[in-house]
Structure to design on (74 residues):
């Protein structure tokens, strides 16, 4: 995900995630705590994104590369 910090998105997403955890909200289809948090974080990201902008682009699947799997350029 690439975002502009000036939108306030990162803080909004963190706030929404914290509120959802404190409220005990999580997807019902998962059983493990880590999975529940993952599902909750995905949901709060969606809400946070759309609450700050409607300028969202979904890129082609070839752009879906986890950054941690990239080897740093030397």
């Amino acid at each position: 995900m690439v975002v502009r910090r000036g939108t306030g998105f990162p803080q909004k997403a963190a706030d929404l995630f914290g509120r959802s955890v404190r409220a005990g909200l999580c997807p019902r289809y998962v059983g493990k705590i880590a999975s529940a948090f993952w599902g909750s974080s995905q949901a709060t990201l969606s809400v946070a994104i759309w609450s700050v902008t409607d300028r969202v682009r979904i890129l082609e699947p070839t752009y879906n590369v986890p950054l941690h799997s990239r080897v740093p350029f030397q």
User: Anything to note?
Assistant: Residues 33-52 form the longest helix (20 residues). The CA atoms of residues 22 and 60 lie 35 Å apart.
